[in-house]
Amino acid sequence: MFQMFKEWFWLERFWLPPTIKWSDLEDHDGLVFVKPSHLCMTIPYAFVLIIIRHFFEKFIASPLAKTIGIKEEVRKKIIPNTVLENFFKHSTRKPSQTDIYGLAKKCNLTERQVERWFRSRRNQDRPCRMKKFQEACWRFTFYLMITIAGIAFLYDKPWVYDLWEVWNGYPRQDFLAHVIHHLAAVSLMSFSWCANYIRSGTLVMILHDAADIWLESAKMFSYAGWKQTCNILFFIFSIVFFISRLIIFPFWILYFTLILPLQYLEPFFSCIFLNLQLMVLQILNLYWGYFILKMLKRCIFTKNIQDVRSDDEDEYEEEEVEEEKEEKEEATEGKETDGLKNGLGANRHLIPNGQHGC
Fold it and tell me: Which of 10, 49, 245, 349 lies 20 to 30 A from 238 at CA?
């Protein structure tokens, strides 16, 4: 059964043009071709990257964060409450006003105390600013290194400057260095690898990595509170994004993967499937482009970019601000109460006899 499925899955008419056979992709005459089995190497590479990331965040990202002013956050511990905890886990993380009223009665608390408990409980599960900076710093470094590697591997390749070469001589020779460049791929890049679309795959990779470098750097400085630097980097990211993903990708890359092959080859399944994935990717680029325009609009009118992070992170920061505000109010009320008590204690002799119990 498994053998039948394997033979069907790897049918040549699915993966290769009509004139090409799997035997044509066997190594010969000093030429080395990529093979689907090579993708197994991504598994140990993934574990290596996880280890590298751990030490990078600990010994590079954390000291860098402290250098630019990001401090470790000590979050206020919430008072354990079984009723509220069960409601939080099994019902909703954001109770309605009716739910808050009912929970307050059940727990013998005020509605404000219940609201504060849920806000604090939600914040317990969210990453702190230091953690978010570490993640952004790692992604920035990864995208930067993979882009540099892509440039180093592709700068002298003819298909970078003349996209007619993408299909010229298919099937073609490949280089071991391309394996490294494809480690970041999961679906689209894995498929392009199996179908031997190395040239188009590398172009798509480097085109999309170029903008991500600037986005992650903008996040890093946003978490550090360097708003002006964040804004500048976000503007650069926006320019690179629109040029690379909304101009070069659709009018250059997609043209040479969707239209040009028709002049070389008859349509076949893997080519159609590849272009469907690329078009889905372009739809996502348009989707994110819409939100980037909204961010730019907000930046122009408010002089600040608050949407470099996700909506959840914005909501988290709003809740943090609200929580800090409440803590300050509590501290102020506590000081006023202590001051009133101390004042009464210090001047108790000024109060007429018989009036101490007012």
Answer: 49
